C-alpha cells in the first residue's frame, strides 16, 4: 500500500511541514532565521509539485523532487549541527536578525525546528524512493 500511495503520502508530509513552519512563524511568532528561510525555499514548492503529480499520477516529477529534498536535508543537517555543536556556531551564515543557533523549541533535548525539517525532507525522500512504478 505504501508504494501505491507514496506520492500522496509525500505530498501530505510536505503539506504538514509547510503548515508547521507557517504555524511557528505566524501563530507562535517565531521569527525564522536565514537558514530557516532556505529550508522553506526547498519545502514549499514540494507542496505544489507533489500535489499536482499525485493528482495526475505523474511520477516523472520524482527525480526533480528528490533534488529539492536532498538540498533541503543538507541545509537542515547543517542548521541542526549549528544548533547542537558549539564549535559549528563559528560557521554561522546568519549575519543579521535571528541567530541560526537559536532554539525556539527543544523537545526531549534534541527535537528542534531544523530537526523537524530534516525529518520531513528525509521522509519525503524515502517515500519518493519507495514509489511504485517508473521514476
Automatic annotation (TrEMBL):
Cellular-component GO terms for this entry: membrane
Example GO molecular function: protein-disulfide reductase activity
Keyword flag Nucleotide-binding: no
Keyword Transport tagged: yes
Protein family per UniProt: Belongs to the DsbB family. BdbC subfamily.
Organism ancestry: Bacteria, Bacillati, Bacillota, Bacilli, Bacillales
Membrane disposition: Multi-pass membrane protein
Protein name: Disulfide oxidoreductase
InterPro entries referenced in this protein's UniProt entry, alphabetically: DiS_bond_form_DsbB/BdbC (IPR003752), Disulphide_bond_form_BdbC (IPR012187), DsbB-like_sf (IPR023380)
Matches recorded under SUPFAM superfamilies: DsbB-like
GO annotation (BP), single: protein folding
Keywords per UniProt: Chaperone, Disulfide bond, Electron transport, Membrane, Oxidoreductase, Redox-active center, Transmembrane, Transmembrane helix, Transport
Entry-linked HAMAP family: BdbC
Pfam families per UniProt: DsbB
Entry's transmembrane regions: 7-25, 37-55, 62-81, 105-128
Annotated compartments: Membrane
Main location: membrane
Amino acid at each position: 500500500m505504501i508504494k501505491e500511495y507514496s506520492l500522496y503520502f509525500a505530498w501530505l508530509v510536505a503539506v504538514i511541514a509547510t503548515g508547521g513552519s507557517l504555524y511557528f512563524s505566524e501563530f507562535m511568532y517565531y521569527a525564522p532565521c536565514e537558514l530557516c528561510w532556505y529550508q522553506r525555499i526547498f519545502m514549499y514548492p514540494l507542496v505544489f509539485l507533489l500535489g499536482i503529480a499525485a493528482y495526475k499520477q505523474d511520477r516523472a516529477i520524482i527525480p526533480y523532487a528528490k533534488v529539492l529534498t536532498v538540498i533541503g536535508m543538507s541545509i537542515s543537517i547543517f542548521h541542526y549541527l549549528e544548533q547542537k555543536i558549539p564549535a559549528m556556531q563559528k560557521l554561522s551564515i546568519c549575519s543579521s536578525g535571528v541567530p541560526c543557533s537559536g532554539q525556539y523549541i527543544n523537545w526531549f533535548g534534541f527535537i528542534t525546528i531544523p530537526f523537524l525539517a530534516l525529518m520531513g525532507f528525509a521522509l519525503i525522500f524515502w517515500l519518493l524512493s519507495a514509489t511504485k512504478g517508473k521514476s
